[in-house]
Queue: 3 jobs
Job 1
Amino acid sequence: MEELGLSERQLTARFLRRASPTTAHTRLFCFPFAGGSAAAFVPWADELKSAGIDVWSAQPRGRGMRLNEPLHRSVKEMADDYMEVIRRRQDLPFAFYGHSLGGLLAFELTLQLEAEGLVPPTHLFMGATAPPVLGLIHPRIAHLPDDGFMVAVRERYSGIPDAVLREPELLKLFLPGLRADFAAHENFDRSPVRQVHCPITALAGSDDTLIDAARMQEWGRHTTAEFDLRILAGDHFFLSISRDSVLSTVREKMLNTPAAAPAFLMRSGFAES
């Protein structure tokens, strides 16, 4: 084992996954929305295993088995954290799915893999994630006092369940992580128009008033490869109502995308020879 100062248990706690299918030939790393956890994607494992797709669901700090770890404070810090695992899991071709905040994280991870000359994902799936090229499209709210922050989140996303609001102890556990995620989203560096070299599929909810299809279309400016936009039934959190459509799109794209060459080969031109 490489000397990174971390145990295998510490490394594997970063992603939840069910037993890998014996026929797995590709891997999907999934990254949740603000306030979310690995639980959002763990059920996908059963749906995708017949297609040979091994699903790894990212677990943010301060949640689940990582409850006692300090919260991530930036998307870059999140990327550095998960990179410690992804660098070691280059045995299969892989793709990234990120929803909302998770999409920015997937984008940052791809840029970092390419910069290090490692194998990048074969595909990027962006669910309800505002493209960085648009800048920060909503007012900052992470700095607000608790009451004001909760009101702002509920008005924008309907994102805090009533059951949590009614239980002070649950709210005490939930709120710091949600606030940290919003701060990471708001402080993400959107100034340069950065591009990745893998295909991007953007998924937009037909009733999403926050990040509509026209905005999602702008992800095409962030890749030098193919771009596709899919509009699915639902609002910003369409993962439940359009789960079958999301998984169908993932299967279609992952099973029809060739394995990626290392980024340094693509930059040098050797991947085409």
Job 2
Amino acid sequence: MSGMGKGNEKEFDVHADDYALSPGASEDILKCLRAGRLDSISVLTNMSCYEKYADRYLEERGAWKKEPLLTVHLNFMEGKALAGPGAAPDLADSRGYFCISWGKLLLWSFCPWKYGKIKEELKAEIKAQTEGFIRCFGREQPLRFDGHQHTQMIPVVYCALLEVIREEGYRVSYIRVTKEPVLPFLKEASLWRTYRPVNWIKNLLLNVLAPVMERKVRLVTGQEPMFLWGVLLSGNMDRKRVHRLLPSMKGRSRQRGRILEILFHPGFTAREEMGEEFTSEDAKGFYSSEGRRQEFRTVMGQVKSNYGMRFNNNTKGRGTEKWI
């Protein structure tokens, strides 16, 4: 992700989460990559299809219009704990699958009698997932990190991550700070009823956690400040609303001197793909939702350049709308 600046420097980044979540999700993201629609993707390293789709990525990337930036998508919500048997007893079940909730990790961030133990378990797992990424993709480029279901925003998680970075001497250029601007949503009064109340809660909670994390992260990475857009509309970043909100999002980012990362989940996972490693029942509906198919169509229907973004009426490139 390049800086906010003059001329042809990018001011926003089109990003897809959940590469290697499942074969279906990975195939959809590969389609977006072949079409040159993505600037960056996040890669899960602890799901069973990871190595297969790491290989697929490496085999195909030479033929793409552009190669995306890769981000380690730290995952403590499901899949296998990679640190080994007994390394994360509070986070994983007897089979080695994660069985922890977002809320419990947040609660433990403020429990002095539990914090230290949980942080050490997280550190072991962060190192294991990071080394799994390096094993497949190498260490030539600086590492980038974010978290599945935005867990990197939880204090005990980001403190563990920052300690691992220092202790292992990892070169890191980016850690996602989930800070989503609110004003653009409020300006579009006609869209108010389309926002899910639970996503408002997520937006507000993550915005509360963001300032302290942002300060600590910048001391380690030196990265430029950013906004992330994709929480309030999570799972339903449809073309109509993205088109309506993008000018305000870009304007707010410029006003605050921030890069805008636009987050999509364009990978669909069919129910029959969800084996025992998918331990979160609540998340299963999200992975197989029609909203993910809609986000895939949005990503495939946009054309992005240094002049802005426009949307095609279909994914074959006919019938474009104005640049935004």
Job 3
Amino acid sequence: MRKLKEILKYRLVPAVALFSLFIVSSALLSSFSGAAPPNNTSPALTPTVQETDPPVLEALPTASPPPPVIVPLRDIIPQLTLRHSSPDYRFMSASGIPFPDYQYGDPVPESLAVDDTFFSDAVFLGDSRTEGFSLYCGLKTADIYAGKSINVINICSSDIISDESGNYVSIIDALGWRIYAKVYIMLGINELGYRPEVFISQYATLVDKVREIQPYAEIYLQAIIPVSQKADSDDSILTNSRISLFNSKIAALAQEKGLYYIDTYSAFLNENGYLPEDASFDGIHLYKEYCQAWLSYLKTHTVLACGVRD
């Protein structure tokens, strides 16, 4: 009997307890697995999305681009050189100083100096004196076409200027390589043996050719630079009196043709009326210092037409 009680106490009771615990656990698991998930979303807070089709964009009308406006070159170029218009005066310096009394053929008056960019649309034509100017004056913005023994006649025929292909052409042909607003000409020292009327007639023909090639350029005729006293006394032709005669013809040509006359003759005269002896090794061709002085003179003697040229 005692043994039976011990079996009930230590074996049967724990087994019944474990079985009861198993039954309760199974019931609890069944209740959780069958329950519906909670609904935490309030209908009032749920946004309502209305589906709509995207708008149909109509294609924009296509327009053909307007045709390009073609402005003739002849309508553009005068604007490069005739920059100002005023009813009160016809001429002014490049620095803006008006010249109310200036006339074509008069010596260009002195004014404020311009810088080298003024010559960026300029070309210089001439003989060996201009060739020296090209070598020694320091100007890098201009084109300079010049050569030994060039005169008003052979400037159109002597092939001394090399093009990009290595071919040689005349100075007048090289003049047509680009468009210029200013043309500076220095000729006459090699023509002092000509009769003055022949010289100026040939010079006029040259001017007409320059205008034909560069119809919108301002043309500056530079006076023949004087020679030294020694050179003057050594030659009956190469004299300052003859140079002065030829220069008067050049000034008259400038007046007749509507050109500018730059008095580079007076610019180089010393107190005795000659080119200084220290200006040249031969009394004719200028040393570097005087080539630079030549450029400085041109910088302080500029003139432009205001409005429409005659």
